Amino acid sequence: MTERNNFYDCIRALAAAFVLMRHCDLLPGGSLGINMFFCLSGFLITQLLQQLPELSRVNVAIFIFRRFMRVWPLMAFQVFLTLGLTVLLRSQQDVRDYIAAIPGLLTFTSSVGWVNFSAAILWTLRAEFWFYVLFALAVYAAGRRAIFWIAISGIAVSWPAKYFIGHARQGKFGGSFPQEFDPIFYALVYLDSLMVGALCACIVARNHPALKALYSNRVVSLWTPLALILVLATLNVRAYNIAWHFKASAVAYLTGVLILHQWANPLKGDYEPLATLGRISFSIYLLHAVVVDYLPLHGFPPAQQFLTVGGIVVVASSLTYRWIEKPFILMSKTMAPFRPPNRILFSEPADPPENRQSRRCCSSSTGRICGSVIRRSVVTGRWVTPSAKQPTLRAGYDKPAKSTSCSATPDRRCLIKSQQRRRCRVGRLHQK
Questions:
Q1: 335, 365, 385: which is the final residue of a domain?
Q2: What is the distance between the alpha carbons of residues 315 and 283, in angstroms, rounded to a whole number?
Q3: Pair (131, 256) in one structural domain
């Protein structure tokens, strides 16, 4: 797997700041930070699928399990924290409504209407989780080479979904669809933002010099997209109509340009402390809604609300990242490691280098040394000599690699000129 890139954490931090400013009434279009999150998530998820040791059913199931363990533990903590605060600070009717919504929230299938702000923001997790599942299954069915066309198809499907279904079924015919399909509808409506990230991963994997040159200019591919994102975030457009969707998708596409610029011409530096805020951005997103819901700051100026809520949330998010997010991420990797490919016929002997050089097939009658090092077969456990007619397969490769054959043994045999032609006894070692 690739190393963590702090530049992507900076994008997360910027997106989280946008959402927080929007919910503190400081930035009218701050909810566009969600589309930045979606684009980056689609990019990173596609890279994970591209880097799987083998695209098998087991590895795809492990991938989905790991994504579940990345999202669910902190979400469950937020749900039960909200339940405790609702019991202490809200009416009995609010408590009953929230308890009725908990099963749907914890299973990413909630179709309950407005309960409170803390529950309302979880629609993004439902959209993202079902994207993980459906996209991974599509890649498994079609193969990794089809990711580009899967992404193009997802973008093509998303725009009709925006118009006919809309956010929370607010589209032209959204009211005619059953409420139980809401989690899938969210994934479809915002599928273009996620699939733009998948396209970026395909471009990065291709690593074409002409594309690198196209996105390497700092002014065109870094500062201009950032400026346009800031301008779009300040525009006050009526939420969830078709103009709003155009604006939201434009932010996702501009975020894709930022991702490609970092690939083509990476910025140097560790980007701290902004990158640290990006690493805890998932906690910031979930916990800020709880603080906004239950901290009485509505009468304060927006800037003061932002600073107060931001300070509380950053401290709390640092703790939840340390004690909830990281342990469960490590636990999922320990519990479910990805399976290596099964197409490994030969493995290198587990001897130190000096013994590997001396392990050669020989003849007891003449003491003649053949020219190739014997390898242990993973299948039979025996020491065998690679042959030119039956090449070995290297770990992690689908195609057989050319192997060097023993100069005196063209067909896995040591043809020794002696009184009788016999096969080399592979258990004997030549001692210098």
A1: 335
A2: 10
A3: yes
